[in-house]
Amino acid sequence: MNDLVHPAVLESLQAKLFGARRRVPLLALLQRNVASNGPAWLPLVLVLGAIGAVAYADHLVVSISLVYLYILPLAVGAIFLRKEISYSLIPVCILLHHYDSPRNIPLGLWIFHTLSAMLCFTFVVYLIQGYIDQREALTKTVQKQRDELLQDVELAAQVQRMFLPVGKPAIPGLQIAGMMQPARGVGGDYYDYIPINAHTIQLIIADVAGKGVPAALLMSATAAAMQLEANHQRNMLEMLGRLNTGIHAVSDGGRFVTLLVAEIDAPKRTLHYVNCGHNPALLLQSKTGTITRMNASCPPIGILPQELCEVSSADLSPGDVLVFYTDGVTEAENRFSEEFGIQRLSEVVRRGSSRSAEELMNDIFNSASDFCREVGFADDVTILVVKCDFGEYDQDLGRSQHGYPSSAELPI
Question: Is the pTM of this model over 0.70?
Answer without folding.
Answer: no
